[in-house]
């Protein structure tokens, strides 16, 4: 039996199912332009440090993934999610998350609150107007030094009570933003 520490898929367009159950030694996971994958479950992957999911390169359909779970991924440091169909995202158990990048997904309310190691949040579109993001909660992210949201017109609320005075907050092109706390 091989104990995988890294998995990388790119332009594997016929792949419609990927079962990583049992690959608990996995440290890095990267997938791009595999539009037929519908779900990924990383529950209990305590060694996983980096997940990067990019639903498509710059051509073809977006990733059909509607289910993505990372419960118990306590070592996860970097999470990058772009161009999927997911509508919910729970990262509350990813207690060591340091960097979060998010683009073109369908999650209306993004809750990153209480992630005390999170230092970078970057939310922006990649050229496809399918962001449904209405609110971002980063309350209690005490290590936060960069919070950047660019061109998310639907965004209405941002919560940033984190106790740091050194944070850089950048909100550009968020035309419907009506509440920042």
Itemize the secondary structure elements and their pairings.
Elements: E1 6-10, E2 28-32, E3 39-41, E4 50-54, E5 67-69, E6 78-82, E7 99-103, E8 109-111, E9 120-123, E10 135-137, E11 146-150, E12 157-159, E13 168-172, E14 179-180
Parallel strand pairs: 1-2, 2-4, 3-5, 4-6, 6-7, 7-9, 8-10, 9-11, 10-12, 11-13, 12-14
Question: How is this structure best described in words?
Answer:
By secondary structure, the chain is an all-beta fold. It contains no helices and 14 strands. The protein has an 8-stranded parallel sheet with strand order 1-2-4-6-7-9-11-13, with no helix packed on it. A 4-stranded parallel sheet has the order 8-10-12-14, with no helix packed on it. A two-stranded parallel sheet has the order 3-5. The chain is globular and about 45 Å long. The protein has strands at 6-10, 28-32, 39-41, 50-54, 67-69, 78-82, 99-103, 109-111, 120-123, 135-137, 146-150, 157-159, 168-172, 179-180.
Core attributes:
globular, 181 residues, 31% strand, 8-stranded parallel beta sheet, mainly beta, 4-stranded parallel beta sheet
In DSSP terms, counting alpha (H) and pi (I) runs of 4 or more, how many helices?
A: 0
Element order: H for helix, E for strand:
EEEEEEEEEEEEEE
Percent range for helical residues? Answer: under 10%
The tally of strands reads 14
Largest sheet, order of strands side by side? 1-2-4-6-7-9-11-13
The quaternary organization reads as: single chain
Indicate the radius of gyration in whole angstroms: 16 Å
Structural class: mainly beta
Cα end-to-end separation: 51 Å
The largest pleated sheet is described as: 8 strands, parallel
Note poorly predicted spans. none
Apparent shape? globular
Strand content: 25-35%
Average of the residue pLDDT scores: 86
